Every structure is written in structure tokens, then in C-alpha cells.
């Protein structure tokens, strides 16, 4: 309606489309790849291997699960961890007769806080990289590496201390289930493994993701055509994201930028960066991290300020259930598996982690940025 009526000028609409269509295309392609890889049994097979490598020691299995959540989030996005890794990890815990809540909580916290390192880790990062113009994924990672490390280490330490009693002792490794189609499993695993380095090669990320999606769709068309469906495309999240892009762009075209410039600061000193990351954190937990980023992006006048904003909208959405789409998707998965959760306790624990993680990550960013 805002486009059709001219509330958002046509020229602004074309500029917006040029920016976000490749981003949404990447989201669609990577979702198809990960959904079909999960259907082929890639994540289940990997979890089974982790159970064997744990050698019956709970703490060792815990470390492997944490590593899986981190790697999945960094290379395949936070939504992949929330939607595909969570049920695999929870079922692994249940089959090994371990309490599932520590593993479930680890996946959702790390899905959010480990999503800072690469552009592909989070939709907000993809949007920010285009504005930063720092020279590709490697330069992006170099800028945010220190705060990203804080975003991973602090939640891991907190979780390990919270559940230290549950992580003592041993477990019985569940039997590894044999994939019904081993060829499909192996080729899908190769496609995913080949995709990971290509996503950080400097190519526009939608290109390798689209090629991988075509390859794996053709593979399933040959081996298991019944698994192919138009529902593999995440229509609802894409529609929500596209709508938010248009509405927030319209608000900026009608004066929102001038308003937020008065409350977001404009420097790269530690206090200004803390102000921006805190604003991103509060906004994410109030209205969700994607619209929070879109609203606040214009006051990220430099790569360092945009990185501070990413700290807030990536590491901060651990308090309210709606702070990130990944958390809502995660909750849907764990309740379907019979895992109960107290939202007040979840929010209180998340608040404690956020109060530690966001300031420390912002401090790390300031120290690194100051050294350059």
C-alpha cells in the first residue's frame, strides 16, 4: 500500500529492492539447502558421531554440542541452529538419558550470540556488510572477531556453570541410526561441506547458496522427489522481512532518521558505542532484532558504529521471547519434543547473560577499533 500510494517514493523503492532482494534470495536458498540436508540425515548423522566421540563422558559430549551449535550458527545462520540443530541435539540428550534443557538452552543462546562473526550468520549482518563496505567477509570478521569471541565464550561459561551438576558423570551412547539412503546422505553432506568455504570466499553469498540449492534439489528430484515441496521456501519469514524492510524504509523517508539521530549518539568513543549497543539491545527485546536494526541503521555512520549496533541486535535478544525469530522457532521445536520451559526463568537468565555479554563485547570492539 505504501508503495502503491507513493508514500514510499518509487526511486527509494528501487534502491531498497536492489539492496534486499539478493539478501532475501540468500535466505531462501540457504533454507532449502539446510532443510534438505536435514531430510537426508546430515545433522542426525553428525549428532550420532558426536555421541560416539563423547566416549560416554557428559562434559565431552557437552563441548561437542556447543561446538556444533557455534559452527552451525556461524556458517549456516542462527535460524538453522534454532530449527534444525535444536531437535537433533534435544533428541540426542533424551536418547542418552540426559536432561534436555541444558542442551536446548545452549542452542538458542548460541544461535543468537554466535551469529556475529560472518555476514551469513545473521540477516542483520548481511544488511550491515553492504553498508560497511569493508572489503568482504574476511574484513568483516576481522572487525567483529573480538566481540564475537565474547559473544560465544560468556554464554558458554554461564551455561557450563548453571548446569555443572547435570554435566557430571557418564551417559550411554544411543545407537547410531543408519540412513535409509546413504548416497543421498553422503552427497548432501558434500554439498554442505563445499558450501561453507564458498560463503566466506568473497563471492556474493546468494550465488554459492543458489548453486548449492539447485544441486541438492536436483539430487532429491532423482533420489527422493516426494521430499520436494514449495514449502521448503520460508515464505512467511521472507514475507515478514520484506514487509518490515518496506515499512521501516518508509518511516525513514518520512523523518524517522532525524528523530533517532538525537538518541543514538554519533561518536566511536567507548561511551557512544555502549549507548548504541544498549539501544540495539533494548530495541531488539522490545520489537524484535530485525526491525530494531533497520530502524537504527542510519545512525551507524561508520563500520565501528555498525558493529556496535550488531552487538546489540545479535547478542542482546536473549530476554523476551519475541526478541528474535530464532527464539520463537526454537520454542516451537522444543515444545513439540516435550521439553517444558519457564518463560520467567528464561527471561531472567537471559537478562543476566545480556548484562555481561553486551558491555564486554562492546568494550572488546572499542579496544580493537582503537588499536587500528
From TrEMBL:
Positions of transmembrane segments: 20-47, 59-76, 140-163, 183-199, 205-222, 306-326, 346-369
Membrane topology designation: Multi-pass membrane protein
GO molecular function: arsenite transmembrane transporter activity
Subcellular localization(s) per the UniProt record: Cell membrane
Annotated Pfam families: CitMHS
Keyword Transport belongs to the record: yes
Family listed: Belongs to the ArsB family.
Organism: Agreia pratensis
GO CC field: plasma membrane
Keywords: Arsenical resistance, Cell membrane, Membrane, Transmembrane, Transmembrane helix, Transport
GO terms of biological process kind: response to arsenic-containing substance
Chief location bin: membrane
UniProt protein name: Arsenite efflux membrane protein ArsB
Superkingdom of origin: Bacteria
Domain Citrate transporter-like: 4-299
